[in-house]
Amino acid sequence: MKILICGMGSIGVRHFRNLQTLGVTDIIFYSTRKSTFPQVEEIMQGAQVFDSLHDALAEMPDICMITNPTSLHVRTAIEAAKHGCHLYIEKPISHTLEGLEELNRLIEMHNLISFVTYQFRFHPHIKLLCELVKQKDVYGDVIWARAEWSEYLPDWHPWEDYTKGYSARSELGGGVLRTQIHPLNYLSFILGEISELSVHCQASGHLGIDVDDLADIHLSFENNVTANVHVDYLQKPRVHTLTVVTNKGRFAWDCHANELFFIDHAAKKTHFPNENFERNDMFVSMLEHFLHCVETGKQSAFTVKEATSELSKLLNAVKS
User: Fold this and answer.
1) pTM over 0.85
2) What is the pLDDT of residue 320?
3) Which fold has domain 120-276+310-319?
4) Is the pLDDT assigned to residue 34 strictly greater than 90?
5) Distance (Å, rounded) from C-alpha 276 to C-alpha 60?
6) Nearest-5° angle of CA 315, CA 319, CA 320?
7) Where are the strands (E) in the chain, listed by range?
8) What confidence tens digit (pLDDT) does each residue in 264-304 have?
9) Three-point CA angle 70, 74, 78, nearest 5°
10) Where are the domains of the chain?
């Protein structure tokens, strides 16, 4: 398969290297040469690099990996879909709903495989939690959950001015609510369909950026479970935790400590190890999943259609 990567920031570079690890060699690039990632020109050396999306798509790639800023995702995906490319799109799918109806129509018309990259669906602990919460005779019925992801934005990409990155710029689709949408997504993966959500977000001014840098989301699920999500660009040291409370105890996950355990009402702890895990393992597993879907014609774990529904709920909540 020929793969076109559109955008060579840090995530584009990660996917490129993982493709190489998986033995994929027929890779071309569409790049505006605006990436601040160190040695990006050296990384692309020897490959075909196009400064025109039209010219890149004329090479008839089988897959288009869309790793440019959020505000450009849909526009790029529409052009790729018109050329019959299967779509591997960085989350969030977009910052608005504009163009998504057309994109979904093109995917259906050309029978394309689409995937929006929520790598935590491939984290061993998150996958395990999906199974454990179904074991109600052992762990009880889920009552409520809380996720927190706080990470100091200036530390994300030390090689660049954080105020100029897409995460901090409204015109590029930035803001913590959309950029750190992962907990919203993996909670629906674990707990089921979201029936209602409300959002409070704000730009605190502490980082000198005009996009939201902290947000709180309240979720209700169709099974009557409720959850709260807090995300921000402000806290240091970083925090990424999840608590799922049942009528028999609670699950506690610490992403950075790589720990998951269940503590019952008698304070007995059951640990679920995740030995030899590295963060990039999620990205490799996610990529393997997508390539398998393309090869077999099976739909992926999280499609553009599902991402559109998720974004619609989020934006409607923000609007209200």
Assistant:
1) yes
2) 85
3) Dihydrodipicolinate Reductase; domain 2 (3.30.360)
4) no
5) 39
6) 120
7) 3-6, 27-30, 49-50, 63-66, 86-90, 114-117, 142-150, 194-202, 214-221, 226-232, 239-246, 249-254, 259-264, 269-271
8) 999 999 999 999 999 999 999 999 999 999 999 999 999 99
9) 150
10) 3-117+285-302, 120-276+310-319
